[in-house]
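Postdoc handover notes: sequence design on the structure in folder B. Input C-alpha cells:
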C-alpha cells in the first residue's frame, strides 16, 4: 500500500461513506441545508436525488451527525423486500427491539399490524420528551410501487404531531416513479426536493487536498494543476470516480517513488480502470463527412448548372424526345427512252 510511503495513516480515497472525508462543495452544502431544514421543520417527506457516485450516502451520514440527541435516526441502506422487513429494521435502529428478537424472538413472526402498533407506541412516547424520529431510506429508486405505498403508510405513523420524518434518497429516476398516479398521495406529502450535483471544476484541487489532509496531517504528496484538470475531465466532478482514479494514481506513484502526481499518472490510472474518455474515431468520421460534403456539392453544382442553362437543357430534352424522321431512300436511275427514228428505204 502507498499509505506509509506518502505519510498517510489511512487511505485518503476510500469508497466508504465516512463523513470525515466530506468535502463541503457548493452542491453538497446546498443539498444538506435543504434536507436539514426539512427535518428540523418536521415537513413530513423530503426527497434527495442525484446521479450515481455523487456522494448521496455520505451526505446522509453527515446530516445524521448534525442532528441533536432528541432526534432518533434510522438509516435504511440495505434493500428490503417487504414492508415487514422495513418496519423491523426501523424498530431495531430506534432501540425498540433487538436484532435477535426480530430474527428469532417474539417479533420474528409478527404481523404488519403488530409491527406498526409497536412503532406507533414508540413514537407517541417521544412526544413528552419533545423528540421525534427520522427514517432515511437510501437507494429508494429500487423500491417497487407497492413498497412505496407502504412507505407512505409509514410516514403517516407519526400522526398529527409529526413525530416521524421521512427522507427518500435515490437516483433521478425516483422522481419519475413518485409521479405515477398511484403514488400521488405520497408525492403530495413531499415538501422538499433537493438535487445533489457533482463538484465544480474549480473545486477539484480543494477536494483532493481535503481528503489527503484528513488521511494524514502532512502528506508527502501533491497533485499538480494539470493532474486535477485531467481528473475533472475524466470524472466530470463525480466523487466516486475521482476517488477511484486518485487511489490508483497514488499506487502507481508510490511504485515510481514519485512525490508529485501529474496528468500522466491520472491518465494511466483512468485507462487501467477503463474510465478514460473514449476518443472518437476522427479519421473514419472525417472520411464519411468529406464524402457526404462532396456528394452534396456535386448535387448542388448539377442543380445550379441546370438552372443557369435551363433553356439549352430544355431544348436538348425536346430534341431528344422528338420522333426522328425516316431518311428518304434514293430512287434508282431510269435510262431515257429513245424514240426510234424513221426507217430508211433500201
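Designed sequence:
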Amino acid at each position: 500500500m502507498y499509505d506509509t510511503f506518502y505519510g498517510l495513516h489511512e487511505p485518503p480515497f476510500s469508497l466508504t461513506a465516512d463523513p470525515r472525508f466530506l468535502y463541503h462543495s457548493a452542491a453538497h452544502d446546498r443539498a444538506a441545508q435543504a434536507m436539514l431544514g426539512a427535518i428540523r421543520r418536521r415537513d413530513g417527506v423530503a426527497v434527495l436525488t442525484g446521479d450515481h457516485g455523487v456522494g448521496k450516502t455520505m451526505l446522509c451520514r453527515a446530516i445524521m451527525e448534525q442532528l441533536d440527541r432528541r432526534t432518533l435516526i434510522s438509516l435504511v441502506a440495505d434493500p428490503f423486500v417487504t414492508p415487514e422487513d422495513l418496519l423491523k429494521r426501523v424498530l431495531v435502529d430506534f432501540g425498540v427491539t433487538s436484532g435477535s428478537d426480530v430474527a428469532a424472538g417474539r417479533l420474528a413472526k409478527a404481523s404488519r399490524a403488530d409491527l406498526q402498533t409497536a412503532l406507533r407506541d414508540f413514537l407517541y412516547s417521544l412526544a413528552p420528551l419533545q423528540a421525534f424520529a427520522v427514517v432515511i431510506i437510501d437507494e429508494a429508486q429500487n423500491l417497487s410501487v407497492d413498497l412505496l405505498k407502504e412507505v407512505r403508510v409509514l410516514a403517516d405513523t407519526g400522526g398529527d404531531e409529526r413525530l416521524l420524518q421521512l427522507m427518500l434518497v435515490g437516483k433521478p429516476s425516483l422522481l419519475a416513479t413518485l409521479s405515477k398516479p398511484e403514488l400521488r398521495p405520497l408525492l403530495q406529502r413531499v415538501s422538499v426536493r433537493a438535487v445533489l450535483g457533482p463538484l465544480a471544476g474549480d473545486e477539484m484541487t480543494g477536494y483532493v487536498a481535503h481528503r489527503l489532509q484528513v488521511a494524514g496531517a502532512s502528506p508527502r504528496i501533491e497533485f499538480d494543476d494539470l493532474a486535477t484538470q485531467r481528473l475533472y475531465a475524466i470524472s466530470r466532478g463525480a466523487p466516486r470516480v475521482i476517488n477511484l482514479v486518485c487511489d490508483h494514481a497514488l499506487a502507481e506513484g508510490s511504485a515510481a517513488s514519485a512525490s508529485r502526481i501529474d496528468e500522466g499518472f491520472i491518465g494511466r490510472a483512468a485507462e487501467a480502470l477503463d474510465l478514460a474518455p473514449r476518443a472518437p474515431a476522427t479519421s473514419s468520421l472525417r472520411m464519411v463527412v468529406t464524402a457526404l460534403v462532396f456528394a452534396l456539392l456535386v448535387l448542388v453544382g448539377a442543380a445550379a448548372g441546370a438552372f443557369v442553362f435551363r433553356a439549352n437543357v430544355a431544348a436538348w430534352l425536346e430534341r431528344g424526345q422528338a420522333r426522328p424522321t425516316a431518311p428518304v431512300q434514293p430512287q434508282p436511275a431510269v435510262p431515257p427512252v429513245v424514240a426510234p427514228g424513221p426507217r430508211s428505204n433500201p
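Context for whoever picks this up: Residues 286-315 form one domain. Don't rerun without checking with the PI first.
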